[in-house]
Design goal:
Blueprint lengths: L7 E5 L5 E4 L2 E4 L6 H12 L7 H9 L8 H14 L7 H4 E4 L2 E4 L4 E4 H12 L6 H14 L15 H25 L2 H14 L4 H13 L3 H19 L6
Parallel strand pairs: 1-6
Antiparallel strand pairs: 1-2, 2-3, 4-5
Helix pairs in contact: 1-2, 1-3, 5-6, 5-7, 6-7, 7-8, 8-9, 9-10
């Protein structure tokens, strides 16, 4: 690493939650103590402020102002710091404590994938940008979306709306990428994007249509008809509707 460059903690939240620092990595799939990961996730996501014990208790246990859990929080904080040891950076400097509140460190810096995801999405949806640049932003953002937000964590009230928000952006990016690729008549890439999109959004009729259309344009009529039958069956089974005209 260049001596002028600062080390950064890279955090993944879209899919498996993980942290990477100077070649060392820890991930939620490696440990089944979900509450330790929930605590860590909350501290990192709201890293720009100090967080009271009461707020952390509510975030982890879904319990408001339960003073009986404050002792459990101290134990959990100890375990969470222990969890960070493989990063080979002092855990007490990563999770700091001041005046009874906790905070995630500002030094070293932290880079979170959802920030990059949102920035790329903003450029992808900006009609003043060059279409090629917009498509590239779409593809990069979709590449970051390795699964729903904190998909391996227990559902909590603060996770559910954020998960829905990023999932919605992913669906819009998929549609945007298909639209831009259609102007290029890049049917092979459209098929790739639609296949991936339908794995996430199996009842998205526009994606089914675009996939079938591209298969047909490439001379794969039998496959296109099979896909139509599959789409029609799924829409009826899941939503009780037939495909639009």
């Amino acid at each position: 690493m260049n001596g002028n460059q600062k080390s950064v903690i890279h955090v993944t939240t879209l899919g498996e939650f993980s942290l990477e620092f100077n070649g060392h990595r820890i991930g939620s799939a490696d440990d089944h103590s979900k509450k330790t990961w929930l605590l860590l996730e909350y501290l990192i996501l709201f890293r720009n402020r100090e967080i009271t014990p009461g707020e952390l208790v509510e975030a982890v246990w879904d319990s408001r102002d339960d003073s009986s859990l404050f002792g459990a929080l101290k134990t959990l904080m100890h375990r969470t710091r222990k969890l960070l040891e493989p990063l080979e950076y002092p855990p007490r400097q990563l999770i700091t404590q001041r005046c009874g509140s906790y905070a995630w460190t500002r030094e070293p810096g932290t880079s979170v994938d959802i920030d990059q995801f949102e920035n790329l999405a903003s450029r992808a949806f900006d009609r003043t940008e060059n279409p090629d640049d917009r498509l590239e932003c779409c593809l990069q953002a979709l590449g970051l979306y390795q699964g729903d937000f904190l998909s391996g964590s227990d559902s909590r009230m603060w996770i559910i709306p954020l998960s829905a928000y990023y999932r919605s952006i992913c669906q819009k990016l998929t549609a945007q990428a298909v639209s831009l690729l259609q102007k290029r008549e890049d049917d092979r890439e459209i098929i790739t994007i639609c296949e991936r999109g339908l794995a996430l959004f199996p009842n998205d009729e526009e994606l089914h249509y675009s996939l079938i259309r591209s298969l047909y344009r490439l001379g794969r009529q039998t496959e296109a008809l099979d896909r139509y039958a599959e789409a029609a069956d799924r829409l009826y089974r899941d939503l009780g509707v037939t495909p639009s005209e």
